[in-house]
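Worked example

This section walks through a single chain of length 362. The input is the sequence exactly as stored; nothing has been trimmed or padded.
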Amino acid sequence: MSDELSGFTIGVTADRRRDELAALLERRGARVVLAPALRIVPLADDTELRAATRACLDNPPDVLVANTGIGMRGWLEAAEGWGLAEPLRAVLAGAYIVTRGPKARGAIRAAGLHDQWSPASESCEEVIDHLRARGVGGQIVAMQLHGERQPECSAALAAAGASIIEVPVYRWAPPTDPAPLHRLVDLVTGRLVDAVTFTSAPAVAALLRAAGTNGDAVLESLRTGVLAACVGPVTAAPLRRHGVPVIAPGRARLGALVRTIVDELPRRAVSLKVGGHLLTLRGHAAVIDGELRPLAPAPMAVLRALAQTPGRVQSRAALLRTLPRGADEHAVEMAVARLRAGLGAPGVIQTVVKRGYRLPID
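Given that input, the structure is written out below as tokens.
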């Protein structure tokens, strides 16, 4: 067990492997909010996949772009069911195979095929540049899709003279229960989570769709306080287009993603010497003299506001603005009382008569 992320709350938008990611974060002390943004479902009608498979058999591709491991395995399993697995493997064996990452490479090799090249960045743009430089004029390119069509990639290769066979193996669908995702939207806009993890680019779009008219508020929170952590550059691209600063590991792995979060979030902790105590704000908890003290949202909001101006008095009216709408000055007094009780350390929150409250820094 580790406490590197103790006090921090992290939203997880993944569906597949969400439990694995949550366990990695919780093992390091984080509180995790599970909110799948999408789920992967097999094509309800596999006529498109079968037609694409037949197109590859009738016109063997010169190039295969394998985007995902799950997609390549699904394609070959479907072909097995149709009695076409061996003919499909035979035509793909003659293609120049590009794999967009280690999972796709693993699926290709498990099928007895051999890949020739992978982009270091795992990005579509790098694949296009490589194939253009190699030359695709007059060639057939089979593009195994990863959940959504890729018109930019296909159009760029078509413009370079290639004929494209798109291979749709699975698609994204909304979560079976949308309530956790809508709750995560509220937590992000209220800045009640410290980070949100994304493991696919479509999950970013799904979160913004779920936000609806609050989409701008979600983006503003991600730009200014809530950390956006993406598994790789492809996932990060839509957030970066919105001007959101993103952290992403050098290698697109869940373990690497967690290590990147462990490196970043604790740097955001604020430490002060107050009233003879060492006070540290870690996400949505306080640490007093080394002891973690989880706090409810209202007391934590008051503490965070006081810590922004240590030593200076904050009026009740100023602190009221940090609480949910509809609260009154009595709610501030209640939040301060709960804060003092939660910290369990006298002298950390000082009342200044008729003026407000402050942190008496040493």
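What to look for: The chain has a mean pLDDT of 92.
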